[in-house]
Amino acid sequence: MSINSLGQLYFEQLQIPPKQSRATKENEEDTSDDTTQENQEELGLWEEKFRNFVDVKDNGPASIGLDFSLHGFEHVYGIPQHAESHQLKNTSDGDAYRLYNLDVYGYKIHDKMGIYGSVPYLLAHKLGRTLGIFWLNASETLVEINTEPAVKHALTQMGPVAAKEKGRSQTDVHWMSESGIIDVFLLTGPTPSDVFKQYSYLTGTQAMPPLFSLGYHQCRWNYKDEHDVKAVDAGFDEHDIPYDVMWLDIEHTEGKRYFTWNEKRFPNPKRMQELLRSKKRKLVVISDPHIKIDPDYLVYAKAKEQGFFVRNHEGGDFEGVCWPGLSSYLDFTSPKVREWYSSLFAFSVYQGSTDILYIWNDMNEPSVFRGPELTMQKNAIHHGNWEHRELHNIYGFYQQMATAEGLIQRSKGKERPFVLTRSFFAGSQKYGAVWTGDNTAEWSYLKISIPMLLTLSVTGISFCGADVGGFIGNPEAELLVRWYQAGAYQPFFRGHATKNTKRREPWLFGEEHTRLIQEAIRERYTLLPYWYSLFYSAHVASQPVMRPLWVEFPDELETFSVEDEYMLGSALLVHPVTEPKATVVDVFLPGSSEVWYDSKTFARWEGACTVKIPVALDTIPVFQRGGSVVPIKTTIGRSTGCMTDSPYGLRVALSTKGSAVGEFYLDDGHSFQYLHQKQFLHRKFSFASGVLINSCADKRGHYPSKCVVEQILVLGLKKQPSSVTSHSPDGKAQPVAFTYCAKTSTLNLEKFSLNIGADWKVQIQ
């Protein structure tokens, strides 16, 4: 990598306004810089007009920029959020990638304009090296990318030998920010895993989520009242579909005043929460950053009294229109404001809330309906007299931080929070989950959600998802089924719809479609032990949960541009069906020395090839990688909390060498005891020479569990065994019942019971 090789280092210093400057210089009889400032004035660099808005820049233009040349690289990724391909595109003939958090309803796809969040972090990958550039700046930022592929260089040479020597690709990345300082971190890898760790040292790892939040979430704008909530909740039980969280949008409040309840629609919120609690379910409600201007609204009155709102350029409280009408905006960049906001979540303050209520931060770009580009004016003033232009992209980050802290404080530091945010920045992973915002119920939005989530994942934000079914519009039944199948294999799994759309609870599309959606959601719950273990790895080791193929197969050029399939951890490859009326999909199975097993049919495939997989509407192509062990739940409850003591199974997929390894993580699923008291289980499963061993992966952890492994499925066992015995910790050997299918080379062990947290082995002879 070389820096400033194109000479684009740029740093504008803060200046005195032209009128003051001229007055000073007239007195001093010095007019040396007058021409520059007059030119800047003519160009509108001191005062910009956008429709009816005038952006006065007190210190003049203050932009910065720098270029980086990446030698030998032509694959670059990152800088979310854009509804674009995972691999970043060449911008030399079009728009630069813009990082500027905006509320964009039904955003365009394949567009480089900024949407809800910004992470100014880019990764580059080539054979033998991965690196990262973290441009720490929260003002509006543009990124230009110019890639010259190796082939182009080679064609300009005189012959094959010269082409071989000099035909080297290069990518130039030019960062430009409206304000701030040049503060850039270069992450040198050399592996993808190394870069993820290096970035996490700077911004933190993914927060360990409470287990319930990995289940299915049901949301719409809006569930009308307590009776509606009760009916939807009962509908899931009636149709035997598990779910964990009911969500309430803005209409649950009294006139969009957050931390209140609409007394007509939700007269008894605690009773409603007790109903959900009885089934071990949770409630999430919305809390936006705009506060209705109403002296009788306690939250507004207290914030006004203490000067906790963002100020306008003239020094008064900034006022803008949002859901409640005229509103002021809390200044979350102030530690005092964050501390006060956190205190609002205390049970004694937030009337009607209980410990199963969690939070959703929306509209926090911030969204201002009549503002420039539907956001706050850049010359609004924050704590410490910083202009909004300096920190626009980090505003929502600070709201999520304060919300997460509030949920921790209300439990006296004992319980993990769950906070979903729409706006985000580098490091938002420390405070919860992110989603892709107001998508549309069209096939193209289902398809683009995969690269969007992969980009979030490699930039540190593992807990991410897209609204299942599409937020805007009415999905046809086939699209809804395919979206549930995709969402079940993505980290944050929530169905959501805007108001005035048709109701779309999973049982409203006919018996057959109900069954297919039920199957997809139940498969999610089957895999929860694997999901939870992956999130632990993200939390402690910075490894993404959802991974582009190039992360797992960094030495295989064919994987570098793949974005229609991905890995979940290192064991599962998922290829969602994203085309209507599809009957077959082409699935690329990477790895010349790998073997893959269809998770439904157990068919075995060699790696490094593309295979045609038939897909009826009940099929989502998922393959388990040879050499892996995936822990599952063998029985499904109506929520994660109802499955705490249910038994486990192991899916053991053998490599070409007949071996396999996997990990399993377990704790209480909700508290910080895993951290403070080391109350957790971290186990390792290994299979070699016909012996499956369960051993301790981290001796620091201790967590008593009654749960047992009651089923083991071994894929790729080439001959039928004569006997199978289990060996418990006390040395007792017990025969194990088994069935073997020669057609699929699968061995199924059942009717046994071995504690998940104990050392034991199973011998196949």
From TrEMBL:
Biological process terms in GO annotation: carbohydrate metabolic process; N-glycan processing
Domain spans labelled Glycoside hydrolase family 31 N-terminal: 42-143
CDD domains linked to this entry: GH31_GANC_GANAB_alpha, GH31_N
Database matches in InterPro entries: Gal_mutarotase_sf_dom (IPR011013), GH (IPR017853), Glyco_hydro_31_AS (IPR030458), Glyco_hydro_31_C (IPR048395), Glyco_hydro_31_N_dom (IPR025887), Glyco_hydro_31_TIM (IPR000322), Glyco_hydro_b (IPR013780)
Coiled-coil annotated residue ranges, if any: none
GO MF annotations, alphabetized: alpha-1,4-glucosidase activity; carbohydrate binding
Region called Disordered, residue ranges: 17-41
Superkingdom as given in the UniProt entry: Eukaryota
Pfam families per the UniProt record, alphabetical: Gal_mutarotas_2, Glyco_hydro_31_2nd, Glyco_hydro_31_3rd
Domain Glycoside hydrolase family 31 TIM barrel per the UniProt entry, residue ranges: 207-534
All copies of domain Glycosyl hydrolase family 31 C-terminal, residue ranges: 543-630
Biased composition (Acidic residues): 27-41
Keywords: Glycosidase, Hydrolase
UniProt record similarity statement: Belongs to the glycosyl hydrolase 31 family.
PANTHER family named among the record's database cross-references: ALPHA-GLUCOSIDASE (PTHR22762), NEUTRAL ALPHA-GLUCOSIDASE C (PTHR22762:SF60)
Protein's name according to its UniProt entry: Neutral alpha-glucosidase C isoform X5
UniProt organism field: Neophocaena asiaeorientalis asiaeorientalis
